[in-house]
Amino acid sequence: MKSIEELKKIREQTLKTINLRKEDGEDAVRIVVGMATCGIAAGARPVLAACLDEVSKRNLANVSVTQTGCIGVCRLEPIIEVYVPGQEKVTYVSMDEDKARRVIHEHIVNNKVVTELTIGAEGA
Amino acid sequence: MQLIRSHILVCAGTGCHASKSDEVIESLNKWLIEEKMDKEAKVIKTGCFGLCALGPIVVVYPEGAFYSHVKPSDAEVIVKEHIVKGRLVTRLLHDDHKPTGEVAASLSDTDFYRSQLRIALRNCGIINPESIDEYIAFEGYSALAKALTEQKPEEIIDIILKSGLRGRGGAGFPTGRKWQFAAGAPGDVKYVVCNADEGDPGAFMDRSVLEGDPHSLLEAMTIAGYAVGANQGYIYIRAEYPIAVERLQIAIQQSKEYGFLGDNIFGTGFKFDLEIRLGAGAFVCGEETALLTSIEGNRGEPRPRPPFPAVKGLFGKPTLLSNVESYANVPWILQNGWEAFDKIGTATSKGTKIFALGGKITNTGLVEVPMGTTLRTVVEEIGGGCPGGKAFKAAQTGGPSGGCIPASLIDTPIDYESLTAIGSMMGSGGLIVMDEDNCMVDIARYFLDFTVDESCGKCTPCRIGTKRMCQILDKITEGNGTMEDIELLEDLCKHIAKNSLCALGQTAPNPVLSTLRYFRDEYEAHVREKKCPAGICKHLLTYTINDKCIGCTACARVCPAEAISGKVKEKHVIDPAKCIKCNACMDKCKFSAIEKG
User: Fold this and answer.
1) What pTM does this model have?
2) Which one of B7, B116, B385, B449 has the fewest beta carbons within 10 angstroms of its own beta carbon?
């Protein structure tokens, strides 16, 4: 027998797994991981896995993780870019699993750009 | 639990299934494993997206990338490019014929979807129809939960009444009134029945709802059971819909496991059960009294009304009977309130209507638009017009019971009253488009032929009358008609419409009446000039070869009747006595040397 509470529980649980099929809302945050040959060679795959893991652990419903091709600065791979609506895109470079988790924690959850990991700080 | 970052939705509706979407699914899964992506992306089969002409359809989320005509062999590139590298496979993206030359990357960007509003089809192409959890995630069963635990049956009926929902099966009777009658009828045992016997040629709205979102029907029927005081429901569906039947069975099973069907639903003590009854596909069994007779195990024949099913229906008990699309609107109305539904549509026709677009139209498929949308929007904007730049001539709504709408009335808003006013009807939602190459007499003859086959034979006007009408139409298309025949035809139409027992016979003359009303000149051309203006009726055609002929002999070689003769490099001739009018020569000729008329 199911109660309304149980119904709600099933809804919330399943929603997590199908959220990415809802039309992107105004507030959707996108994390894009560079996954061209250069990115993958530099270790983008564990970075992507870490992003997915962190997003799911923290229950971030309006965040999608996608990947993209080569951005052109192969020497700085793995690169991830964070798009928060209404804010300028932030590019993080030379990522690893821990740094990626930190970006999600500080930038996406606490809305504070991790300046020392951005392309401006490390790259040029 | 690792988060799945990408969902690959593959349409598993009948249309896409027929063009091998099951093999596409298999192949995608194979390549996901091959590329070690099976933990990050998953393949989900869904119901109809509506663009059946473009199938098999694959949509990849979160991007919402819309791939059309996907072959099993394309699975490799989708996985390797899109899933592994995140690059859209441009070659497979749906080309929306945008003037800018851009291709639509996302589903909602296409002309096909822009003017649509999906209520009954809200979950089709979005959820996996075989997963009750996904239905629940999209607010499924919340209307039922609320209804059973917080609302009285009268309140629910009141909401349905106020929403203005009318029957989507054709006649457009207010659904709330039906619920009221069934609830008010005296008796302990009552039934809720769903008419899923979709029989119009070219109509597949109900099938798509059943294939894409079966739980919405189950939820609505259970709510209806609670509202009218029934504990048992039946879904009458034709055996020709195997995929829909299978998904319904899965849905009923899941619903029972979750306790949404059975005893003591949501702990309220309310009990409701559902069973499927398979029909053998007789058109007349879509008529409500014939349908109920068929469920009872008897030969599917109608009986006179009254008494109406709401008073004396299945097994002689009060019965609520609605069609699939009507039910599919119910959970939405209860979730969003009657006010939201009332805002959509026109003064007397509320909400949306699904149409199955077929015939001479570019985007063959399924569309759902607000009531009051013009035929022009549906045919030209959503449907993409007639293929090959041909001119739109008419559209037939309501199948063999409906009538045609000529091009001059293309700006007619689609609602119950407007369509009846011009001699057509809403019908269940089949919309067959005809272009300049269609002969309207032939179209009328085609529908009559269908009715003759499907008449159950119980009453004389329908059994004999439709047969006689069909014979007269045959006579006209063969060039033997007289002006008296047209008058006789009109006379017969009136009698059959007036005296037939059920809607099948009463509406059978509609295709003839409406084509006579708008295309009388074509009938007269067949009779007076012995000509078929569209060049369809074979008996009235003669093929000739003009001076453009260079004597290439291609036509003579392709002619199956050996009716063409002539020497090489000399003009050929067709022997009309031998010609079977198969058009093979005309298709073959590269010099436009063959004429018909």
Assistant:
1) 0.86
2) B449
